[in-house]
Amino acid sequence: MKLVVAVLTGLRPALLRRTLDSFALHHPDVWDAAARVVHHNTGDRDTAEVLDRYEWDVRNTVHDLLPIGEASQRLGCAVRQVDASYVLRLEDDWQSHPGAWLEDAKQLLEQTDQVRLWKGKTSRRCLVCRRPLSWSRAGKHLVSGHAHYTHTPSLMKTGTFLRLFPYKDEREAMQKFHGRPVAVHVPGVFTHLGGGQESLKRNGGRR
Questions:
Q1: In this structure, what are the phi and psi dihedrals at residue 171, rounded to the nearest 5 degrees?
Q2: List of residues 6+ apart from 22 with CB closer than 8 A
Q3: What is the pLDDT of residue 206?
Q4: Four-residue CA torsion sign, 4, 10, 12, 17
C-alpha cells in the first residue's frame, strides 16, 4: 500500500526548495517511506541543484518548457515506473504544514476518487457543468458525490490517477473525471505559495 510523491517542477527553485523542505520537515515518516518521482521542465540549473539535495526513484528532465498538461503526461509516465497504490501529485509551489493526514485520506478514498489536501475555501460549483456542489460531513472531513478533478495537491489511488491519461490540459482531465465523488481533508495539509510573479503562467506554463 505504498505512496508515490510525484513532483512537477521547473524554473522556480526557491519555491521548490520550500515545497520539498517543508514536506520532509513536517512529514518525515511519509517522505522517507514514499517512492519519489519528479518531472523537471526546462532542466534549469538552479532547480536541478535543489533536486540534487534529495533522492529520487525516477527523475525525468526535459530541456523545454512543456505546457502543464504535457508535462503532466511525463509525470504520469514516471508514476507508472514505481509500484505504489497511492499517488500524491505535487507542484513546486505548495507549503506543507504539520498534522497527520495520510491515514484519514486513505480511508476517504474508500468512498471517493480524489482527496483534496490544501487549506482553503471549498469549491461551491463544479467547474465542468457549473452545478452547485453539495458537501456532507464524513467525520471532520467533507465529501461530495459530484465534483471535478484538480491539479492542486490531492491523494488518489494510482489506478484512478493513471486512467485520466492522456489529456491535453487540466480542463480535459476535469471532463474525464467529471461526476466522480471527491473528499476534502479538514484542516488540510498544504497552502499555496505561487502567485503573482511566481505563477506558472507568468513563467511560461500553460494549463
A1: -60, -45
A2: 95, 96, 97
A3: 39
A4: positive
- pLDDT less than 70: residues of the chain: 195-207
| Architecture of the structural domain at 3-198 | Alpha-Beta Complex (3.90)
Q: Which three cell numbers stand for residue 149?
A: 478533478
What are the tens digits of pLDDT across the range 33-54? 999 999 999 999 999 999 999 9
195 burial type by CB count under 10 A (0-12 exposed, 13-18 middle, 19+ buried): exposed
User: Can you give the residue ranges of every domain in the chain?
Assistant: 3-198
Q: Are 93 and 198 in contact (CB under 8 A)?
A: yes
What cell numbers appear for 102 in the block? 495520510
pLDDT value for 169:
93
Give the model confidence (pLDDT) of 14-32 as tens digits: 999 999 999 999 999 999 9
Q: What size, in residues, is the chain?
A: 207
Reading the block at residue 12, the C-alpha cell is: 522556480
